[in-house]
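Might you be able to check the backbone structure tokens below? Thank you kindly.
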Amino acid sequence: MELLEFLLNDDQIFTTITLFVLIALLIGNIIADKLKKYEDVDVNNAVTLMDEKNLIVLDVREVKEYQKDGYIPNAIHIPLSQVKNKLDTLDSSKKVLVYCRSGSRSAHISGLLTRNGFEQVYNLKGGISAWKKANLPIKTK
């Protein structure tokens, strides 16, 4: 009872509201992570996936990034803004490894793919930045 009185005290109400908002955000984040239908993979697991012939490597960075920073060999380049309109050009029966610069935009596209019938979708954690840091091959035009 004393805890409740303390939390609802006029001097503590802002702190109490902040605490409840942070707890709600944490719970929401945990639930969202459990509900996502794609898998985040590190560069080592991405390389293992690439050993399979049934894999599409999808680069969703913008054209300038793709040209400036290079790309993972055999990647298909479809900028993020165009992926939704080009879903029918991708084979939904294949595994898809999606990457961007850091892994954030590719996570968004990984979710889009799973919502549109792609069942085996992987997001490269850290994106091409992690790929380069691991000294893995990059192609440039």
In short: The mean pLDDT is 89.
